[in-house]
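@channel sequence for tomorrow's demo:
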Amino acid sequence: MGLRETKKAQTRQAISDTATRLFLDRGFEPVTIAEIAAAAQVAKMTVTNYFPRKEDLALDHHEVFAASLARTVRDRRRGDSALAALRREHLAAVGRRDAVAGFSGPEFAELIAGSPTLGARLRELHEQREAALAEVLAAETGARDDTPVVVAAVLGAVHRTLFHQVLDLTRAGTGADETAAVVARSARRAFALLKPSLGEYAVRVD
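structure tokens (generated this afternoon):
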């Protein structure tokens, strides 16, 4: 990135970090945009320019999250099915303790669980992720029926379930390493159950 882009990225991150500290201290709903702007020492309009929705100050990986499944399928290796690519990437994300897979500190997991607003936004992001995956599957397979939508719904449900398993274990005080081990086992079982029906679906041939 150039200097201008670097400065913008730093400002965005500083605003998000400030907002997260306030949310963890007081809860999501009570904190206002004006308070976040004052604490971050920026104008209120600067906050809303970077984050049009207050929820995305907390869920600041929302764009990466919503695009993640579609990107994995679009970038899969030659010979890989959509299922194989998603299985491999999910296990890698768990190994990295990636936020996109649900990993966070216990306080942040409690913040999400305790906020109806953040819960609703997270459901919306799961739906967006599923819709993006369906679009890529339709483009990759040339399907003219609703098969890509159905497949995306199944694969999205698996990822959503595993994401919430990470959150639940984190809230229960389970350490990141143990959580990763438990969720990796769950993921392997879930993807194995899907292999008979989806193991040869959307295989990359070029």
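heads up for whoever presents: The longest helix spans residues 116-141.
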